[in-house]
Amino acid sequence: MTDSAVIDIRAVTEDDLPAWTRTWGNGYLRPYTEHSVDAIRATARQDRLIGAFDMDRCVGTYRSTPQELTVPGGAVLPVSAVSKVSVAGTHRRRGLLSRMVATDLRGAFERGEPLAVLDAAQYPLYGRYGFGPATAMAWFEIDVHRARLDPGRTADVSGVLQVDAREYLKAAPAVYERLRAVQHGALRRDEQWWLDATGQRPEGAAERPEPFFALHIDPDTGEADGLLCFSAEETWGSMLPRSPLWIRDLVAVSSRAEAALLRYAVTVDWVATVHLPYRAPDTLLPLWLGDPRAARVSALSDYMWLRVLDTPRALSARTYGVEGGLVLEVTDAAGYAAGRWSLQGGPDGASCVRTGRAPDLRIDVRDLSALYLGDDSATRLAALGGTEELRPGALARADAMFRTGRRPWSPRAVLGRRYQAGAP
């Protein structure tokens, strides 16, 4: 057995890509193909690929990508988005993940990225590195026959336009950008993302059937203000249609567009069940149905995890629910976010500077990260043990300041063949 100290943690080179891709595929149960290497290579210029190498064998993978995150109030911060993390089963419990995380977080801090984000495949892993669950996701299954929507009521779907992939690609990015400007928790979608989502990327485009696309057109402006992408499978039983429909992406700038697009999906001919993933738990979508109980929550989970690296920059970038001040003593084993900070903030902006004043709250960086987007409360985190009230009333003040009117949401889309709700 190789001593873990001699396993090399380093940036991945062009020659390393096939071995790195195969190791990542093994970890995620994805068969290795030449196309999978090409897909990694296509994004490698902007990504930071890290590998763990035992002699000439890749035994661990890690990727981070420069991203942008919308925070409460609409400001956009550069972040390091972590993905494709794996350690070969033959090399676990040797600290390889810890070394890769440490390498990447140090690089992110030095590059001036105040936050890091990731989607945690396993809950217990990332808290030890200062990440906290910052958003949650709900998955719905809609029973079409109980939804009490009449397919003949064209007013319910007024403004919806069926389009092909090219028409969709022309309008959809602008719709998403309008939402991203106001939706805290949203990440950037670049051109490559949209090409993948619509099957317009030249390599590998023929590997999967094209989904269905629709836009909602604002009657007042003539511009698209909502987008819908879905796939469906014709299914019958005893001469009755029982087709499932899987919503892959649904984004709307207005309530009118959101309602019309959902109602359109639920009234597609032959569909019996609509699967709706990746929504904020307080989504309004079920309430656009005639009977909201037709939308059953099939899964509820933490989703995007966040890690504060630069405390003053992160806290001063967002707005707060009420005017107030807090002195936070942040603990961080890695040191990045640690310190005693004076936060003054409100609906119009904030400032955060180092201070020598006595703290109101002592908070671990994991709790601060979970609190940052407004999806948790300081009172709840204190009950779990990671936050301590040092001045009476500080927890209530923190709750009032950090909470947001709507829960954070990072709009996600289902790409390729994989669908969390059970589609092929």
From TrEMBL:
Residues 7-156 form the N-acetyltransferase domain. Acetyl-CoA binds at V85, S86, V87, R93, R94, G95, L96, L97, S98. The active site is at Y126 (proton donor). Gene3D superfamilies: 3.40.630.30, SCP2 sterol-binding domain. Pfam families: Acetyltransf_17 (PF17668), Acetyltransf_9 (PF13527), SCP2_2 (PF13530). The keyword Transferase applies. PROSITE patterns: GNAT (PS51186). Keywords: Acyltransferase, Transferase. Belongs to the acetyltransferase Eis family. Homohexamer; trimer of dimers. NCBIfam families: PRK01346.1-4 (NF002367). HAMAP family: Eis. This is N-acetyltransferase domain-containing protein. It comes from Streptomyces pharetrae CZA14.
